[in-house]
Design a protein that fits this description.
Layout lengths: L5 E6 L4 H11 L4 E7 L2 H13 L4 E5 L6 H13 L5 E4 L19 H27 L5 E5 L6 H4 L12 H20 L6 E5 L17 H4 L1 H7 L10 E3 L2 E2 L3
Parallel strand pairs: 1-2, 1-4, 2-3, 4-5, 5-6, 6-7
Antiparallel strand pairs: 7-8
Length: 247
């Protein structure tokens, strides 16, 4: 009997790092990838391309800013698979310019709230909704797409490479997401579910711009590594390409 495939859900998986993560996971052995795309038509188009490239991929319409979509995603995975092995919380937003002068004293409440609604509150609520399905998987994996810009240690260090990159709404949302990783991993410490934060690197995407030094295939590697951790792998950590980052 063929081994039952693992099922992975990638939010914001129709472009950028999420799309490349879907490609790499879907071409791996024994993983069915479902992409969450706000525009179903665009999602279906990229899923067709990934399937032509040998990846086992499907797509559902999903918008992290719409809580009603969380229940629809739950119903989809419950009906079709009865479980969820891998959740990659990839969807994210930035409303600021990373290398602009520090605007902490003037950043608007609207920017703060929109950023946190997507990067923090939406991610937590979705994870809570899907967690019962992840608990039904033999060994669940939750990957939260953070950023090195969420590291308070590095932000406070004048010698760190990110010291001058202060974008309060985005940075604070990723620091908060890291806290969620630590807390959820602790709650689930006696289960086979592993929860980790991933820093993909500075990658050539719409958010990262063409100035970024990393290409998409490398930008997806950390998510793929954490999504496919062995049973003796870490949980409650913050990683880039297998290396732990300071909180």
């Amino acid at each position: 009997m063929a081994k039952e495939k693992k099922v992975a859900f990638i939010t914001g998986g129709n472009r950028g790092i999420g799309l490349e993560t879907a490609r790499q996971l879907g071409k791996g052995d024994g993983i069915k990838v479902v992409i969450g795309s706000r525009d179903l038509g665009k999602g279906q188009a990229v899923a067709k391309e990934l399937r032509a490239d040998g990846a086992d991929v499907d797509v559902i319409r999903f918008d992290i800013t719409k809580p009603a979509d969380y229940k629809e995603a739950y119903d989809y995975f419950d009906k079709n698979y009865g479980k969820l092995d891998i959740l990659i919380n990839n969807a994210g937003v930035s409303k600021e310019t990373f290398m602009a002068p520090n605007n902490t004293s003037t950043v608007t409440q609207a920017v703060l709230r929109e950023t946190f609604d997507t990067n923090f509150f939406g991610t937590i609520e979705l994870t809570q909704v899907l967690l019962p399905l992840i608990k039904k998987a033999p060994e669940g994996r939750i990957v939260n797409l953070s950023s090195i810009l969420g590291s308070l240690t590095l932000h406070a260090d004048p010698d760190s490479p990110i010291y001058g990159a202060k974008a309060l709404a985005y940075d604070a949302s990723k620091a908060a997401l890291n806290a969620f990783t630590v807390h959820l991993a602790h709650e689930l410490r006696d289960t086979k579910i592993k929860v980790n934060s991933a820093h993909p690197g500075w990658v050539k995407t719409d958010m990262g711009t063409d100035a970024a030094p990393m290409e998409l295939p490398d930008g997806a590697k950390t998510s793929v590594q954490l999504a496919t951790l062995a049973s003796d792998g870490p949980t409650g950590g913050y990683f880039h390409m297998g290396e732990a980052l300071p909180w």
